[in-house]
Amino acid sequence: MLDIAEELHRWCLRAEPFAVATVSQVGGSTPRGPGAALAVDGAGTAVGSVSGGCVEAAVYDLCADVLADGRPLVRSFGFSTDDLFDIGLTCGGTVEVLIERIVPADRPEIVAFLAAAARRERVALVRPVADPAAGPGRALVVRPDHPDRGSLGAAELDRIAGDRARELLAAGTTGPLVPWPGHATRLLVESSVPAPRLLLFGAVDVAAALARLGSVLGYRVTVCDARPVFATPARFPAGVEVVVDWPHRYLATADVDARTVICVLTHDPKFDVPLLERALGLPVAYVGAMGSRRTHDDRLARLRAVGLDETRLARLRSPLGLDLGARSPEETALSIAAEIVSDRHGRSGLPLTGTSGTIHPPDRVRPSARPAPTRP
């Protein structure tokens, strides 16, 4: 429900029932992953999507049925070769959908989760899927360093599910969860985390174009430059943070994590070298620097001179961006954004016509620091 949390939060404030269909599990190539949702209110208004269009009409009708009778449903859709007009995914994958009626007054855990998710706070919602023994309406809200709210029906299940959900929340991962091997209850964990950061160093024309794309891709964008004449909010899209400071000094105190993307666009060794010296030592997702191949070679020599080893230098994406033949600032920004997306999903960045295999791969999941618990 994360992609429509703001709208659903407003629906909760209206205190009127609605039905929400949430993708609980997928297999093969699918347009949307676990957590994607379609919701329908009493007036028939629909928001969101569970399949990119393949089965939306059928899921809409099921939402209307659940809204009317209140009984939750779990339905699976897959590719059908028997009837070209049958309901299914033409992409060849399978998608399982959990459909529930939400009455805000009766579902305080859902209301609390949606309110926090709308504010982009770090919070997870755990719900049972396809368990005949689990009564409708059970949910657990999990936050870092806070007591869990709600219940899945059993204290031991709540404890283990809460611990496992915190691991997924720390990784920003949404998906199915089996509390322990052999347990009958399969759970869906939806993890809301603050937007990942895109740090652009150098208030240049490419930064302005990349800031727009970064915002569209869901990043919280910051532009930093030591030159106040260029680092002005008027030169950048609304909502972009603009900081006047030396880049390396700003990065020393910036809040970064494993999803953070850093792009160095300054082309000036006095900015680039101290900045990259610090950036390449941080546990961030991506560090790239713009410039020609000659600039790149010079930059590597300067970084080696200040003591960076080959392991750290190997993390640097430079020249940054995919080979699109970009000329304009907008085209250059597109090539950089494309590389960021391909890196995030572990893909090649090659044309799909020259590749094989699944077009929509499952999201890469950071492995748990602990093994799955055994049954108590």
UniProtKB/TrEMBL annotation:
Residues 346-376 are annotated as: Disordered. Pfam families: XdhC_C, XdhC_CoxI. Residues 198-340 form the XdhC Rossmann domain. Residues 12-78 form the XdhC- CoxI domain. Coiled coil: none annotated. It comes from the Bacteria. Gene3D superfamilies: NAD(P)-binding Rossmann-like Domain. This is Xanthine dehydrogenase accessory factor. It comes from Actinacidiphila yanglinensis.
